[in-house]
Structures are given as C-alpha cells and as structure tokens.
Design goal:
CATH architecture: Alpha-Beta Complex
Helix content: 25-40%
CATH class: Alpha Beta
Structural class: alpha+beta
Strand order of the largest sheet: 1-2-3-4-6-5
CATH topology: Aspartate Aminotransferase, domain 1
InterPro entries: TfoX_N
Distance between the termini: 27 Å
Protein name: TfoX/Sxy family transcriptional regulator of competence genes
Largest sheet: 6 strands, antiparallel
Order of helices and strands: HEEEEHEEH
Number of domains: 1
Strand content: 25-35%
Number of strands: 6
Shape: globular
Length: 109
C-alpha cells in the first residue's frame, strides 16, 4: 500500500527535531518512531495515531476517527484519522502532539 507523501511531510515538520526520530515502513504505510516506540504514521491518506489506552475511547468519538483494525481486530490505543480530520495544521498538530506525548511517556527501546 502506498501512503501520502504530502501528509508524511506535514507530520515530519512537527517531529523531525527529536534526536530519536526514525521512520519505518509498517502497516502498509510509514510509521514514525520516537525513542524506538511508535508514535504515529501515515497509511494511505490517513493519519495513524498512537493515542494510548486511556484516551482511546474518547478519541473514537471525534469526527473522522475510527479504530485501527489492521490485523482484523481493533488495536486498542491506536486510531486512524481520515484526511478530513487532519486537513488543517491545527488539527494535525493536535493529533501529532497527542501521539508524541504518549510515545515519549514510554520507556525507550
């Protein structure tokens, strides 16, 4: 599966300053890693966000958000956000910051 290079560039602009920033092809798209932990990524035209189990249910109530079910069953703590949900820089920044905060709360790998 391909992924939106334009969306990847927008995500990079928010996270590239981290010394531990890495990109890995995963889930049919591109995942952004911080300290060895997945933070967020892009699959097709959608943002993939690792929001954590505590914020998962609340995030699913936000427009344009759906559960990440890459394996056929939901991956609790991870969501997809449709392109319309990250159309503005303010929307994208909020999701990236939420993912960044969760990823950095984990022990480095």
């Amino acid at each position: 599966m391909s992924y939106s290079e334009a969306l990847v560039e927008r995500v990079r602009s928010h996270l590239h300053h981290h010394d531990s920033y890495q990109e890995k092809k995963m889930f049919g798209g591109l995942a952004i890693m911080l300290n060895g932990n997945m933070c967020c990524g892009v699959v097709g035209e959608e943002l993939m966000a690792r929001v954590g189990p505590e914020r998962y249910e609340a995030c699913l109530k936000v427009p344009y958000v759906r559960q990440m079910d890459f394996t056929g069953k939901p991956l609790r703590g991870m969501v997809y956000i449709a392109a319309a949900g990250v159309d503005s820089e303010k929307q994208l920044a909020a999701w990236v910051e939420l993912s960044e905060t969760f990823a950095l709360s984990l022990d480095p790998k």
